[in-house]
Amino acid sequence: MSTSIILLCLVVIGAVAYVAARSRAAALSGGRSSALHSRPAYYGSYAAIWAVLPSLIVLCVWLAVSPGIISSSVRGAFPEDVKAQPAVQQDLAYSMVATVARGMNMLTSDEVSSLSGDPAGLQAKLSEKGVPLAGEPQPYMIDAAKTLNAESMTSRLFMTAIVLLISVAGAFYALRSVAPRFRARNRVERVMLWALLGASSLAILTTIGIVLSMLSEAARFFAVVPFADFFFGTVWDPRFAGAGSSSFGQFGLIPLLLGTLYIGFVAMLVAVPVGLFAAIYMAEYASSKVRSLAKPLLEVLAGIPTIVYGFFALVTVGPFLRDLSANVSGLLSGNYTNFIQAQSVITAGIVMGIMLIPYVSSLSDDIITAVPRSLRDGSLGLGATRSETIKKVVLPAALPGIVGALLMTASRAIGETMIVVLAAGVAARIQINPFEPMTTVTVKIVNQLTGDLEFTSPQTLVAFALGITLFCITLCLNIYALYIVRKYREQYE
């Protein structure tokens, strides 16, 4: 029985247990809900939990553990000369055994029997079934494949029987526990509390796992390249070491970091005024009809993939700025030479700012709307105009939240990749001219991990050092944003 069918059976058993426990609780109450400690639905939920949760845990553990046990059993039956080979060769052999076993499941028993002594014929037959083999299987591989299929089938049968038995036993146990004074609600809420705690822990552990994975690889990079050369280097020129040379190039972070901050700064110059003014208009001036139409249309920008913004920059914005600069230069000096490159900091900043507008406007709009109405009414009642009320009452009250929203938007800008690749280029250099190309940390992370390189050389390991650096920058921005929000909100309250 497949895993999906087992899950469907668990759902059916859980639903039956829910209905049965709820009906039993209603019958015991004699039509008086006050006779029960909990509502009938809690009794049903309690039974459904017992019918599904223990069996689901057993199913997950079985699926996680059984492949390793079966693999060890099959590998143990390999010939001694195969077991004497390196682990990589044994893994390749087992991979072919698994492929042969999967292909045998597509053949009839007669075909398997007739082809057992003919490895070449088995290979051709499996190829006809859409299961190609890298080479002709050895006789021991065919026997190992039969063993693998047999043990997998046995494991599947035992798993199905045990899981369904536990599910039915849990349902009966829960039904026997149903009584008028049984605290079903407390038990169900405790399970839900543990589920919520597990979900929160999973999110935290995922973050910890991401950080540890980057730290472990970054440590290997810093074992080859000194900290000072990376964090204070001004030249980015990674290259492979030549014959007889131990040089891996230069891995200076400064050009990438300056490009990241420069492009992010230009993007914020575009996004903050437009987004903030749009938020003020929608929160304070727009009618309900205009707001209901304008806000969703503005937030559509947030749903556009960043690669589309990159195409927009590459095809439209970049050539437009280049041609515009050529025309301006021709009108002023008679020399129609463009001083703005199609791929430049300003191109990437403008397009990225357009992408960030909905983030700024949506967050700021929610924050401004949350300012108490009584403050507006008090200001207007004292004779202030609407614009004075917005400038001197509403915005100061909403300022902590707006600043936090802007810092979070800045962290979003720092992590952008596709727009920078297409709009700003990949040139890692230090310069202050916004009309020239630069690049960012994220672009170089993609570049260093693209190709057939293994994670053993500084050229690839540097991507993890860049990643942990970028993670620290965005983490500091987010923490500072939360600090500002909490500090000034407490003062205001």
Oligomer: single chain
Global Rg: 33 Å
What order do the helices and strands follow?
HHHHHHHHHEEHHHHHHHHH
For the biggest sheet, the summary is: 2 strands, antiparallel
Helix amount: over 70%
Please report the total strand number as a whole number.
2
List keywords for this structure.
1% strand, flat, two-stranded antiparallel sheet
Report on the architecture of this protein.
The chain has helices at 3-29, 40-76, 80-83, 87-104, 109-115, 119-128, 139-177, 184-222, 227-231, 254-285, 288-299, 306-333, 345-369, 373-381, 386-414, 418-423, 441-448, 458-492, and strands spanning 236-238, 249-251. It has 493 residues and is mainly α. It is flat and about 90 Å long. The mean pLDDT is 83.
Annotate the secondary structure layout.
Elements: H1 3-29, H2 40-76, H3 80-83, H4 87-104, H5 109-115, H6 119-128, H7 139-177, H8 184-222, H9 227-231, E1 236-238, E2 249-251, H10 254-285, H11 288-299, H12 306-333, H13 345-369, H14 373-381, H15 386-414, H16 418-423, H17 441-448, H18 458-492
Antiparallel strand pairs: 1-2
Concise synopsis of the structure shown:
The protein is mainly α and 493 residues long. Helix content is 75%, strand content 1%.
